[in-house]
Design brief:
Elements lengths: L2 E7 L3 H12 L4 E5 L6 H6 L1 H20 L14 H25 L2 E5 L1 E6 L2 E5 L8 E10 L3 E3 L12 E2 L1 H4 L8 E5 L3 H12 L3 E5 L11 H13 L3 E3 L3 E8 L2 E8 L2 E7 L1 E4 L3 E3 L32 E3 L10 H15 L13 E3 L4 E6 L2 H6 L4 E7 L4 H6 L5 E7 L5 E8 L2 H13 L4 H5 L9 H10 L11
Helix pairs in contact: 1-8, 3-4, 3-6
Length: 470
């Protein structure tokens, strides 16, 4: 039986980053992955392929509707979806291949097969190839990093063709003529955007009275207005109760107040959230405790109640975000190695990669109110930013929520094409416990979109330069 210092089950962002860090620290490390390709959901059927399609479809809209404003005459514009999908697959293959190379570089042994914990310190690897016998490997420490899976509705089981999850919605060979999306979170909004850009008539149904729950309400409403302008139809406070398929067409029955509504479509994407992939791993059989949502219970150092077994990422409490899992993987391994791994959960940004993008970190204005915090708000619109005007990309604002007494930044929220990049500065300041004045007095290059971040921070004290301070 081969013995290791650490065995990591799952090769997603949390798992493979943990493996790299373990290798760097000199720990003899193994990683067990049930799929042929490394990288987990994020690299193979999630973050990366969706962003590839978002980028390609955004380029198409620019060429079709915006290029002429810049004096670029391109004539008739069309989409070769097959080529677009091929490019997406090439991106995925490049990155998953890169992960495999990093495993070799950091001397991580990889096992292809389904990993099951048979006892503390022991993992059985059952190969997907029936011709290959299973094997058992031994370790001092096990890290569960198996991620999450899409949630099905009881009346809308995934069939992979008409009722689809995000996985299948990334692989359509032609845009659905009518595309119905259930759920207005990040996945629904992003994939709805992709297919709306490529010609589908997209309708999004949401049970709650708003889209993008968890993000700042003011900016979420602005995002909805922008996406509506791009052709997406929203029905909020709408509860889907049944879905029927007839001759390849789907009909969804829903209620809004006392009104019953019917929606017809070619395909329906169910994007109502994800659930931890935590069952069937043997963890429950060796006594690992779970919460009511089937998440694995861990302490502040990612230790379960069973000695030598840890868990990170989507299988534990907290936002289901790749970058959260990565940082947990690093911190967990560093703790195992006797170092001081740490994560500031108040400084983890969430992002929706539509156009404009929506990004947020820390407290929203409503959350500050609920906590009874005396706060101040600073805002700055991109239509007053020189670089945004040059880019002809005026949608969106930057918004800060700061403690009224200490000026410490409690939250930052950005709606803009480049929000996913711009939010990092605010994350850094929050992580270091900085104030709006700290950010406002930091020199920002001109002309850049980041100047809007500075001016929003200045507006907390009502001293922004390029707007009327109110």
């Amino acid at each position: 039986m081969e013995k290791f210092d650490v065995i990591i089950i799952g090769s997603g962002p949390g798992g493979y980053v943990a493996a790299i860090r373990a290798g760097q620290l000199g720990l003899k490390t193994a990683m067990v992955e049930k799929d042929k390709d490394l990288g987990g959901t994020c690299l193979n059927v999630g973050c990366i392929p969706s962003k590839a399609l978002l980028t390609s479809s955004d380029h198409f809209i620019f060429a079709k509707k915006e290029a002429e404003k810049h004096g670029i005459v391109v004539g008739s514009v069309d989409v070769d979806l097959n080529k677009m999908q091929q490019r997406k697959e090439k991106v995925v293959k490049t990155l998953t291949g890169g992960v495999r190379a990093l495993m070799k570089t950091n001397k991580v042994t990889t096992f292809e097969g389904f990993g099951t914990i048979t006892a503390p310190g022991k993992v059985s690897v059952k190969s997907s190839d029936p011709a290959v016998a299973g094997q058992e490997i031994e370790t001092k420490n096990i890290i569960i990093a198996t991620g999450s899976a899409p949630i099905e509705l009881p009346f809308a089981k995934f069939d992979g063709k008409t009722i689809v999850s995000s996985t299948e919605a990334l692989t359509f060979t032609e845009p659905p003529r009518e595309f119905l999306v259930i759920g207005a979170g990040a996945i629904g909004l992003e994939l709805g955007s992709v297919w709306a850009r490529l010609g589908s008539k997209v309708t999004i149904l949401e049970f709650l009275p708003r889209i993008a729950v968890g993000f700042d309400l003011e900016l979420s409403n602005l995002l909805q207005r922008s996406l509506t302008g791009q052709g997406i139809t929203f029905h909020l406070e709408t509860k889907v109760s049944a879905i029927k398929i007839d001759n390849g067409r789907v009909t969804a029955t829903a209620t809004k107040g006392n009104e019953e509504l019917k929606f017809d479509a070619d395909k329906v994407l169910v994007s109502v959230g994800r659930k931890p992939f935590s069952e069937g791993l043997g963890a429950e059989k060796v006594g690992v405790e779970f919460d009511e949502k089937k998440r694995i219970k861990v302490d502040e150092h990612f230790k379960t109640n069973v000695d030598g077994i840890y868990a990170i990422g989507d299988v534990i409490a907290g936002p289901m975000l790749a970058h959260k899992a990565e940082d947990e993987g690093i911190a967990c391994v560093e703790r195992i190695a006797g170092k001081d791994g740490h994560i500031n959960y108040d400084a983890i940004a969430g992002i929706i990669y539509t156009n404009p993008e929506l990004a947020g970190v820390g407290l929203t204005e409503d959350q500050a109110k609920e906590k009874g915090i005396d706060y101040r708000v600073g805002r700055f619109p991109f239509r007053a930013n020189a670089r945004a005007i040059v880019n002809d990309d005026l949608d969106g604002i930057v918004k800060f929520v700061a403690d009224a007494k200490t000026d410490r930044i409690l939250g930052a929220h950005i709606l803009q094409h480049a929000a996913s990049e711009l939010i990092a500065e605010a994350v850094s300041v929050i992580d270091f416990g900085g104030s709006s004045e700290d950010l406002a007095r930091t020199c920002h290059s001109h002309p850049t979109l980041s100047e809007a971040v500075k001016e929003a921070a200045m507006n907390v004290e009502k001293r922004a330069l390029h707007i009327l301070n109110r």
